[in-house]
Amino acid sequence: MEEGSGWGRGKATAVLVALLALAVPLAHAGEAEARPTQGRTWTFADTPSWQDEFDQPGLPDPTKWGYDLGGKGWGNQELQHYTDQLANAFVEDGVLAIVARRFKRAGKTTYTSARLVSRGKGDFQYGRIEFRARLPVGRGTWGALWMLPTENRHGGWPHSGEIDIMEHVGHDPGQVHVTVHTQAYNHTIKTQRGKQAHVADHATKFHRYRVDWTPDWIRGYIDDAPVFEFANEGTGPDAWPFDQPFHLLMNLAVGGTWGGAQGVDDAAFPAWMEVDYVRVYPLLQP
């Protein structure tokens, strides 16, 4: 009787071990699906799928660009009022100019500028995004070439993310920043992920500012030199909301919590940011 019971226990144990042996690989397979495959080699097409070379003078191409309008502080206590007027955004000699201007009326100083967006006209999920630009100068200027989610699938900022391809504030001349913002990593909780590089002739020469964006990582470059990398940890959208379409933004802000941290030099206006081209190269399957 005891011998038979022992044999039964052994058989039951063997069956349990066999079941566990099956379960463990299945659990690992589920984890592998949830995590990015960091070893994948990603490449990009040689020809852009979307671009603007700014060859047509006048207002920016309305089939590619719209405008964010108004003077609401834009979440950063900025001073400018964004318009869709030719005085603030125009194409001339193959270059887009975004111009921030200062006005003084009835003793009050106001600023106008432009914020161009490709939302609904150029929305992308993954790819190589490159701007060739000459950056503004002057204390109080805050130029940016960047991306925001088109649908906010994971919720409002910062839940759905932000990709800053280039940011430059005039009180820190030549320091160009490449940054991402997510719910887990953003400046409001002092966990923001970003890097900067010094570009001494940022205002006198055109330079190429780009990100390569894949399901596994986002990498930032200036003139093809690597500056920044942000990896997909595989922990979900709080850390990686970059699994949805984003659109492009180009703007020149005035003042604000960062741009105006050392005040605004009124002698710097009008201030200019110039963009020679914008090109988006699609991601190819590994």
From TrEMBL:
PROSITE patterns in the record: GH16_2
Residue ranges of the TM segments: none
CDD domains for the chain: GH16_laminarinase_like
A Pfam family assignment: Glyco_hydro_16
Residues in GH16 domain copies: 40-286
InterPro entries xref list: Beta-glucanase-like, ConA-like_dom_sf, Glycosyl_Hydrlase_16
SUPFAM superfamilies: Concanavalin A-like lectins/glucanases
Keywords, comma-separated and alphabetical: Signal
Signal sequence interval, chain numbering: 1-29
Highest taxon of the lineage: Bacteria
Family: Belongs to the glycosyl hydrolase 16 family.
PANTHER family: GLYCOSIDE HYDROLASE FAMILY 16 PROTEIN (PTHR10963:SF55), GLYCOSYL HYDROLASE-RELATED (PTHR10963)
Official protein name in the record: Family 16 glycosylhydrolase
Organism: Pseudoxanthomonas kaohsiungensis
